[in-house]
Amino acid sequence: MAPTGQVLHDLARVLVARGHEVGVIASRRSYDGGGRYPAVEDVDGVHVRRLRAFGFGRRGLGRVADYASFMAGAVFEALVRQPRPDVVLSLTTPPYIALVGRALARWRRTAQVQWIMDLYPDALLAHGLLSEGWLLAALRRLSRWQLAGADLVLALGPFMEQAVGRYAAAARRLTSVPLWGGGESVQPEAAGRLRAEGGWGKGDLVLMYSGNMGLGHRFGEFFEAARQLGPEGPVWAFAGSGPRRAEVESFVSARSGARVQLLDYVPRERLPASLASADVHLVSLRRAWQGLIVPSKLQGVFAVGRPVIFVGPESNEIAYWIKESGGGWVVPEDDVAGLIRAVDQARDVAERVRRGQAALAYAREHFDRQKNCEAIARLIESAAQRAARAGSVESAPVS
After folding, report:
1. Of 56, 69, 138, 397, which is most buried with the most CB atoms under 10 A?
2. For residue 178, which of 160, 151, 202 has the smallest C-alpha distance?
3. 337-383 pLDDT per residue, tens
């Protein structure tokens, strides 16, 4: 369910197709902490080993306990039970899981690759869970230490790459490759059925927020614009879940008069049709989170030829990609009037089509799943080759 797990699955399949043996250590718990998956499973040629972990959910101390229990199991699984790999690749959920990857790389004298999806501890600072002080300084030093000597540190875009550079100065290589859209062709009939299921008429303008409702996203501007435009305005559909779903639920239950719907996640195989069922998509980012995350919504939306209205600051990948492609609108934070103007422009079918076609062309060039997975695979192979030639992975100094 989690976007990070989906893109890791895509990469793993490409690595298998290139002749590599791939194993993944994950949790038996689902993204929301509820459901369970099999302990051992082969998926598309990838051997998946899933560990037991607490299932308190995605909030507060329960989330910390879930992460801690998984980390403990991952240490034993990676360092004791698993055979020696040529490369160990770590993501960033749970935070600092790369410490396990670094330990494995040093213990087994193998290559270390870190794929940054969220930048810690800066994300904790942005969320207000940390403040300047000795703890933040200690965590920053820990972040530098876990990346020191890494053969490859991979970011999601140029702004994130710049932010990661503060911690990866002692890494052997730092670069970025964007994530990607689904890549599947969309059948108009499937999108039409979903519009009918949602009760959306042919003349309705449907604005959709699809995916994770995370801590780094903004919703206030959407809520206020929906309230001002009222029952005669567009449909505002929020599909997904995450830490801030409760805010959307509260707005829906407040009966503001706006045409707002709250939808669940859809299975990945239905995602392209779900994205194509909307006319325009909504993406947002809080200023404090620039360079720390790169919402993956835009890539999937562009891949089905739909334009995006983005609310947020400009020094980030989303704003840059929209402006470079012409595939949507960029609206500053707190500019509800600007958001309403963008919505008014989006009512023009020809304008939507023009921007949607620009988005699709940009996705084919920059967000192609196969091409970007192949690029990452080549980077990983090069990292493994460098480590093999060196004969060992030497510790790098920590600044």
Report:
1. 69
2. 160
3. 999 999 999 999 999 999 999 999 999 999 999 999 999 999 999 99
Note the pLDDT tens digit of each residue in 184-198: 667 788 899 999 999
Q: Which residue has the tokens 């004969």?
A: 391
CA atoms 80, 86, 91, 96: torsion sign: positive
Given a contact cutoff of 8 angstroms between Cβ atoms, the answer to whether 265 and 233 are in contact is: no
Separation of alpha carbons 397 and 399, rounded Å? 6
The answer to whether 101 and 90 have CB atoms below 8 angstroms apart is yes
Note the residue count of the chain: 399
Q: How many beta carbons lie within 10 A of that of residue 227, not counting itself?
A: 17
Torsion angle in degrees (nearest 10) through CA of 355, 360, 366, 367: 120
pTM listed for this prediction: 0.88
Sequence-ordered strand ranges (E) for the chain: 23-27, 40-43, 46-51, 87-90, 111-115, 152-155, 174-176, 206-212, 235-241, 259-263, 280-284, 308-311, 328-331
CB 111 within 8 A of CB 384: yes
- Domains, the chain, with CATH or none: 3-180+369-390 (3.40.50.2000), 188-366 (3.40.50.2000)
Half-sphere exposure of 228 (CA within 13 A, CB side): 14
Distance in angstroms (rounded) separating the CA atoms of residues 50 and 39: 5
